[in-house]
Amino acid sequence: MLLRGAEIFVRVLLEQGVDTLFGYPGGAVLDLYDALYEHRQEICHILTSHEQGAAHAADGYARATGKTGVVLATSGPGATNLTTGIAAAFMDSVPMVAITGNVSRPLIGKDSFQEVYIAGITLPITKHNYIVQDAAELAGILREAFYYAQEGRKGPVLVDIPRDVMQQVVEYEPPQKAADPTPAPLSLQDLKTAATMINQAKRPMIYCGGGIVASGAEQALTELMHKAGIPAAWTLMAMGAIDTDDPLNLGLIGMHGTQTANWTAADADLLIAVGARFSDRVALNFGTFAQNAKKLQIDVDPSEINKNVAVDHRVIGDAKQVLEALLPMVYKKEHKVWRRQIETYMTEEAALVPENFPPRQILKCISDLAGPEAIYTTDVGQHQIWAVQYVEHVRPRQFLTSGGLGAMGYGYGAAIGAKCACPDRPVIHITGDGSFHMNMVEAATAVTYGLPIITVILNNRALGMVRQQQEWFYQGRYSATELERKTDYVRVAEGFGARGYRCTDIESFRQAFAEALRSDVPVWIECPIDRDLDVLPMVPAEGMTAEPCKGEEP
Amino acid sequence: MKKNTEVLSLLVDNTAGVLTRITSLFGRRGFNIDSLTVSATENPLISRITIVVQGDPQILDQVLLQTGKLKTTRKVIVLDPSQSVLRELLLIKVQADETNRAAIHEIANIYKAKIIDLSIGAMTMELTGEPDKIDGFMEILGQYKILELCRTGITAMERGTDIKARIAEEQGGNV
């Protein structure tokens, strides 16, 4: 059947099961938008305020569901505005297909109006990207892009379509039933070696990352932990993989991780990394991280092996598949002596943070009221780490945060994506006054589409995380981190058509938050907090995890 | 071969922008390229890129894995120098007049270099061979005034492999 490129684009989206996409129109994508208009009953297009918000929304949609997020933008500035969102998805291995329009083929390379070489710009932040040179290739390329976004280690793929390719009429063939990505078979020898290492260890520990969530391995992980008696720490990307109350849960590991997790890593004789990449925020110092431990790494991406930290053995494969295969091969153990040692760390740590620490009170209150179905998104900074520390009982895909890229402004877009994916569940966006100023314009999107997202702003009138580093390591010289802004959040919220609250004590917060949960419009709740509250514990960059800063004044 | 150096032979898709993907990756990860050559192969869908890289074993391992991860890479082969033929082409222009022309000619003969251009003040030669041979030739010519030179970098191939099996693998796709 003969179809225009733009129509083929929509048909492939439909055949891939896309029912929602996020985007922003422009000259180079007029044809795509015209085709979307034709199919507006089948595909819901969410218009954001800014393309960055659209990219974060596609990312949030993907993280909340595991499906591929789709974002659409025009050429030039539309395309460049996507880049932060694409990079955030790339760093955290989130499946995404980004579509950009470009100027017509004869105008490419002529510095035409709104022309950029987005394929070149996104080369290092995509799994792969394409420039469609002929409409005859369009369907095949788009199908491949969707396949590739989900295959192996997931990630963003960009497809750049010149305007005249959208207008070109070519023969379209409906798809052959494409095979889902099938994981490669595991190496039995590698599994045996891994099981032997686990069975021989006296002081084993697991350190798990986003790979657990990507492969849905949380159940397998918990079973392995309990059978083999192995405590586990997790990275930001694996928040929720282990139940808050699990006695084997060591908490977050790394720069702002628990002392327990970091000290356990320093004492362990076997460190099992599962779907985690030894990032500098976790390992801190590649030479000294878990230096007394043999290291066993389980990852779907072979290029992660020995990248940052040398390991003794590796098993390549999907985390769930590997853990399930290992389960019958490991001995049942309790590791009583080792567990007792860790329990003393936990007891010592429990006394560190007072109950009335304001961020803890606020986040605990949110966590109690929002219920087990709530999805959380965060921006980046102190509020982000506090949220990780004090939000409890989330499961995987319920805590969405920009871990690798650390993109301030991620949270509101991601919340929009999550709310579109899960309209019946509460979506809570936790932010700070710094981050929120970056993308608060997405309130317009939330209001327009009737997405009652709750935004909680921990307002310390500072770029708190950077200020904290200045306090500790730059003699309190607060360069450009103290915000003297006059933003009235309640009035700005109302200006957007949302509802605003300002809560100065925990009781009024509890009341406002309970009202917000019943609201059918977006709600902002501003919580003024002290500037000098620090995120603790903290291990300085490149520091030794065995010696976290405990919280004495610098 | 220098220590901590490896010769990689990459079979990649012969499509636009493939070289950019490889060099962008090397740039981003800080891998050092000694030389890089690109050429057509017997299969019009595939190009061969020969890269000489330097680094400690951990870096070389990363080069291999990261390059192999690119979607456009079909196969990465680490060439074992004893099992491969490595060749490089040198063009070198030396200042030469009637007083030293004969001497330079004699050196060229010993190395089996071809004289491909002669002018009143200069002589241009061409030499193909293993990198060590090229190095040696250049060193000897160093006593004269070298006006200009260029080397292609190594291009290489494995000795006597079962070609049919290899091609079948390539058609099958990736690494």
Span between N and C termini of chain B?
Answer: 26 Å
What's the number of helices of chain A? 22
What is the CATH topology classification name of the largest domain in chain B? Alpha-Beta Plaits
How many helices of chain B? 5
Structural class of chain B, by secondary structure, is: alpha+beta
Strand fraction of chain B equals: 35-45%
Assembly annotation: heterodimer
CATH architecture tag of the largest domain in chain B: 2-Layer Sandwich
Q: What is the largest interface, and how many residues per chain? A: A-B, 15 and 17 residues
Give the full name of the CATH homologous superfamily of the largest domain in chain B: ACT domain
The assigned structural class of chain A equals alpha/beta
By CATH reckoning, the class of the largest domain in chain A would read Alpha Beta
General form of chain B = elongated
Number of strands of chain B: 9
The count of strands of chain A amounts to 20
Q: What is the helix fraction of residues of chain B, given as a range?
A: 25-40%
Q: N-to-C SSE series of chain B?
A: EHEEHEEHEEHEEH
Quick tags:
heterodimer, A: 554 residues, alpha/beta, Rossmann fold, 3 domains, six-stranded parallel beta sheet, 22 helices, globular, B: 175 residues, alpha+beta, Alpha-Beta Plaits, 2 domains, five-stranded antiparallel beta sheet, four-stranded antiparallel beta sheet
How would you describe what is shown here?
The complex is a heterodimer of chains A (554) and B (175). Chain A is an alpha/beta fold and 554 residues long. Chain A is 40% helix and 17% strand. Chain A is built from 22 helices and 20 strands. In chain A, the strands form four sheets. Chain A has a six-stranded parallel sheet with strand order 3-2-4-5-7-6, sandwiched between helices. A six-stranded parallel sheet of chain A has the order 11-10-9-12-13-14, sandwiched between helices. In chain A, α3 crosses α17 and α15 crosses α16. The longest helix of chain A is centred in the N-terminal third of the chain and has 16 residues. Chain A is globular and about 70 Å long. The termini of chain A are far apart. Chain B has 175 residues and is α+β, with helices and mostly antiparallel strands. Chain B has two domains: 98 residues, ACT domain (Alpha-Beta Plaits); 66 residues, ACT-like. Chain A, domain 2 (Alpha-Beta Plaits, 2-Layer Sandwich). In chain B, strands 5, 6, 7, 8 and 9 form a five-stranded antiparallel sheet that branches. In chain B, α3 runs antiparallel to α4. The longest helix of chain B is centred in the middle third of the chain and has 13 residues. The two termini of chain B are 26 Å apart. At the A-B interface, loops of A face α1 and α2 of B.
